[in-house]
Amino acid sequence: MRPAEREGPLRIGGPSGAQDHRRFEHHALGTVNCISLRDADPRRPEETDAAAAAAFQLLDRIEDQLSRFHPESEVSLLNTLGFDRPIAVGKALFGLLQAAKSAWEETGGAFDPTIGPLMDAWGFPRGPARVPPGDEIETLLAARGMDLVELDTEARTARFVRPGVAIDLGSIGKGYAVDRAAELLQGRGIAPGAVNSGTSTLRFWGEPPGGGPWQVEVAHPKRPQEAIAILEAAAGSISTSGAYQDRFFHEGIEYGHILDPRTGRPASGKVRSATVWTEDALRGDILSTAIYVLGADEGARLLAKEARASALVVEEDPTSWGGLSVRVFHGRTPGFGRR
Q: Based on the structure, what is the number of domains in the chain?
């Protein structure tokens, strides 16, 4: 399998020399999405073509439904009217809001999709990049937190308890979309295969080209064209969080796009990237984001509660060669090993 995108923090593959997978690309969710599939019947490749097209159409529908940048999306409607009255939302959005609220509680607020206004204040992801003054950040912090989002399970509605609250599902939208696309493809009899959204969220099933475990390259935070680690992973998903590309410098200080919702400022700990294996990509997106914000020690405590999970964390370490060190920890059962 060819790498999906050489500039990204994750690259997937299998043993070299295998040519039985075909690769499809499509732009959605604000990034390039790649699907690698093996024909269920080599005599009928058009069936694989149709399956890939259906998966990409699904990604488009999910983006139309969940992106806060689409003015007619469910999320935009909720953000516009959610303080005025309860808003009836679809099953998918309601489930994501429930998952986000649980994750917010579990991580002590380190994972929080109500940071949309804070992201805008910093100019992420559309710019212009800026460092907002402290009083502006404090004002926006008063309108963040999933405790300000009321969910009515029976009516399937959501509302905000104060003005200024807004939802941004960028931290879990890719995971949800990748899971859905993988489920669609497997339902069409495609096995094995891989779905890769933006090189930060992967889902793969079956055996990779040539057999053996799936191989995932984790890019070096300082030299993204190089791998800092190669993982041998079981079928499942891998998500990574790191400020590899969306960042800026101001007065000699680097600011990355992953905010600490508790402070309203870019996460400033030692973690440079957090890569997590889980069975589903939605959970992986939550954990990788939380570990990046909380740090490796607290991340290890989070992962210890997981039935099956693994994490590779790259930290700044002036005592190590190159100024970085790598730590690996697992849930009760590991999902990957290092090659």
A: 1
